[in-house]
Specification:
about 180 residues; mainly alpha; Rna Polymerase Sigma Factor, Chain: A; Arc Repressor Mutant, subunit A; 2 domains; about 75% helix; elongated
Length: about 180
């Protein structure tokens, strides 16, 4: 009975903070809710292993970190359909010789950073999970290459290819959406 009361107290004290952190890490409120629920289920199941050497908050955040890593592993391993036909012709050559900097330069010279940030965020969210996860980890969370590769189980070469192709998709999205807003 003590275990149930303690878990209930932790839910009251820490669920909002854990949910906010999970939303930040996975950018999907419904997934974040599921992850936080999994955190408390794991805390209930592993209650006997909690020795009190750290605070309950620290222990719960550690569980959250592990659950988010599990989420990313699961999502990353789910096959996604990715199309490169917008960038390459049948022979594998670039369709147009534009550089990646073009889309960024256009947006930053207009001075409307808030609108550009919103469009950029939407473009990143539209990426396939296999590309979105590494891009978020590398560019938004500023994680190091070895850490990302270890966490999602890919090679360095694979990561750099994913980042390159993801940037291309984001660029195309930015070009399309900024033209729509003009």
């Amino acid at each position: 009975m003590l275990k149930e009361k303690q878990i209930e107290q932790w839910i009251e004290l820490h669920s909002t903070e854990l949910l906010n952190r999970a939303i930040y890490l996975v950018s999907d409120k419904e997934e974040a809710k599921d992850i936080v629920q999994d955190v408390f289920i794991a805390a209930y199941s592993g209650y006997g292993s909690f020795k009190g050497n750290s605070s309950a908050k620290t222990w719960l955040h550690t569980i959250l970190k592990n659950k988010v890593a599990d989420y990313y592993r699961k999502v990353y391993k789910t096959p996604a359909k990715i199309s490169l036909e917008n960038f390459f012709d049948e022979a594998g050559n670039w369709k147009n010789g534009d550089s990646l900097l073009g889309a960024w330069d256009d947006a930053t010279t207009t001075g409307d950073y808030a609108e550009f940030d919103h469009i950029l965020e939407n473009c990143i969210e539209d990426l396939a999970p296999k590309w979105k996860i590494p891009i978020k980890l590398y560019y938004l969370q500023e994680r190091k290459t070895p850490e990302i590769c270890q966490e999602i189980g890919i090679t360095t070469t694979n990561l750099w290819k994913i980042l390159q192709r993801g940037r291309l998709q984001v660029r195309e999205c930015l070009e399309t959406k900024t033209m729509e807003n003009e």
